[in-house]
Model the fold of this input.
Amino acid sequence: MRNQNDDIMRNLLHFVLSVFVIGSFLGCSGDVVKTPDEFLKQESVLPQFNWREQVIADIGGSEKMLFLTQNRDALCSLELETKKIDTLFTGYDLHYVCVNEDDGSVWLSMGNWEKMWYSKTNTKIQCPPTKHHDKLVRWEGSPQQSFFACGNRLFTGVMPKRGSTNSNLEYAEFREKSSLIAEWDISDENNIKCVRIFGKRPSDQPKDMFVDDCYYTAFNVEDSVIVAATELSQSVVVMNFKGEKLKEKKLSSVFYVPPEKRDFSQNHSAIEIINYWNSNMLFRGLYYDKYRKLYYRLLDLSGEKSENTFTKKEADWVLIVADSKLRKKYEVRFEGEKYNGFLWIGKQGVYVKKKKNKTKAEIDVRLSDVPLRMPLGKL
Done:
């Protein structure tokens, strides 16, 4: 009888995961720009999977990366030290995962965010009906968009988004009053309740740009704060875990140029919309690194427009590094054609996926500045 994990391993390609030790530069002013090579610690070969649908967490004293298979039909865990893979859950149309590191339990969204799988009881839980501004809302999110668990609380994003608003004014008013985060009491998985819905966009959010921009959150349990940001604002909002706004703080880049103003309240072609996002600078992602007590914010630099295709030359991106008080320390500029603009935070450092693998039988692996060799197929 074939082992399911063996099947998964055979069906997965491989990629290079680079580990960067961020925060090693002391006394830098905020406008200093570094290169990735100044922080690179090592590169490792790991299985290829849907790299956006994964998290790194300490589970049972072992650091593991949880990920979905390419077909979104299985949730697996990869032990980073031993490279051992286990299958945690099988299903269909699986989406995002978060880990409650207080007890090691896993939450996995399924379908159209109508249900979640809860590992502690191995049950599927239906989203309870909840209203916000007289509209039914449901949980929504990703590891970067309000999907976080601690203690007996689960934090998610909320739906609906723009939806039924028809005019620029209606949308501006809706976006102004709509909240970003929902807090759920999960102490009884059979009776999950919405505790509160909170969180506003920064005050410098453009009010005359009618586009559905994403928002991002970073949860800092140690300091009991939640930091929220959007794609279009240079500032971030700092809240406590009660949802009360504490302050706003500018956290931007020396490279930043505000996007052009466009009104997408009416119908536009997919090419027009994609070209807009591809050819403007947008903030993507906000992270808190509990191991090094740092915040990371990502900025996509401008790409190239395309008249008849959905593809584009990958733009460079910038990693903005700030201390626990959100004071910018420095920036790191990454080549878009070489590195994916997405991070995972682990004990050893910050993980970034390399885009292009070597096709030879072995790849270069670097530990500090010492070149090593590792067979491609060996895990």
